Amino acid sequence: MKANLIVKFAALMMVCCMFFGCKPEEEIEKLGTIYGTVTDFASGDPISNVNVRLNPRGETTLTGMDGTFQFNDLPSGSYSLSLSKNGYADLDDDYVIRIESGNTVQRAIQLQKLHYSLQIVDNNNHPITILDFGDDAGVNQKAFNISNNGNIALDFSIIKTANWIDTIVPVIGTVGINDSKPVYIIINRGLLEEGVNNSNLLITTPNTGGIELAVKATNYGSPVVTTVDVTNITHKSAACVCKVISDGGTNVTERGICWSAAPNPTINDFKKSNGSGLGSYNCEMTDLSNNTKYYVKAYAINSSGVAYGEEKTFTTEKFPTFQYGGYTYYVAPDPGNYMEWSEANSYCNNLSLGGLTGWRMPTRDESVQMFADRIYIGGFYMSSYNSGGRYWFSPNTGYYVVFSNGTIDNLHSSCLVRPIRRKN
Fold it and tell me: Does residue 43 lie within any of the structural domains?
């Protein structure tokens, strides 16, 4: 009887399992939680609206007003967090969070605010607010540096506001963290107005707005100088009288004359300076060629450049000259050979040179004066060898002047001769 009851109970249980799905009891997995607070690295204040991403699941949430966040129902595994918010540096947190057996893990994270520090500095890293080109006409290029002391690279662009700011290199660029980049500015002084010219450059970045750098250039007027006259013209020299009438608003640092055998001379040709500032001045031109036409101008230099006066022309004398007895005499070159007195006298009297006649042999006293001026006159043979450099004078007494020492001698019967002629 008892055995029948056991069989019947077993059969009933089988039927129940068939109808009610009876199975062995399974263990239910426990789920974990990650939560935390995001604060500012510098101030420690909570940061709201931070985007927090749970890796590798990809779930995201935003921090609340108190900077808190939370991820629930996380299965066991390894997780990490990535955070981002405008104005802060993105953070991929390398701390590995492990969820096991439904545990709860807290993670406090700090974000560092992006720090932009754009400065305009010189080559010594000193901050500047103005780029002054001054009034020197030769200064057309200057440089400054864009410096970034922040913790993020900065893109920049530069805008100019004046047409005389000709070139900016580079106009756009990027400055790395704790780095600087040079910028070169070239101006066109030909477009400057007279006086002080002021403008500015606007250096802008997407993050910091803009910084203005003042740019200044001064354009004083050119000096006014006049070429007054050319005087004291000889066969190899002349003098020029000039005057600086106006300095153009800044100091005349150099004044003088320039000349050439071609028209329109400049200071790149022959030149002679004489002082600075306003007023009259004289300059002498030397080592000129005889019987040559020259062109001469006064010049004056200030910070704006070189100014020239009117062009004057003059022609050097055909022959060297000397003064004696209140008269000026031309001196012809010697014929290059020794002659007896009578031959030399005939040569002088019959000479036609440079379109001029009326030449003669100099007297003794005139020859002595010629010896005194021998360096200026030039062309004398002055060797002392064998009494060389002896020149006849008139009347014929058998004597001559030795141009090596100025003595009067009569040891030779043949000499050189230099014909002379009154200039006027």
Answer: yes
CA 199, CA 217: separation in Å to the nearest integer? 9
| Residue 22 belongs to some domain of the structure | no
Contacts 24+ apart (CB under 8 A), 155-159: 155/205, 155/206, 156/118, 156/203, 156/204, 156/205, 157/203, 157/204, 157/205, 158/183, 158/201, 158/202, 158/203, 158/204, 159/201, 159/202, 159/204
Average pLDDT, the chain: 90
Dihedral of CA 271/275/279/281: which sign?
negative
pLDDT in tens, 328-387: 999 999 898 999 999 999 999 999 999 999 999 999 999 999 999 999 999 998 765 445
CATH number, position 53: 2.60.40.1120
> Do 139 and 179 share a structural domain?
yes
Q: Are 105 and 130 part of one and the same domain?
A: no
In a domain, 187, yes or no: yes
Residue closest to 400 by CA, chosen among 415, 380, 383: 415
CATH classification of the domain holding 306: 2.60.40.10
Average pLDDT on 92-103 reads: 94
Q: Which domain holds residue 40?
A: 32-111
Q: Is residue 8 part of a domain?
A: no
Beta carbons of 76 and 60 less than 8 angstroms apart: no
Cα separation, 259 vs 90, in Å, equals: 73
90 and 172 in a single domain? The answer is no
Nearest alpha-carbon partner for 212 in 126, 128, 115: 128
**pLDDT, position 210:** 81
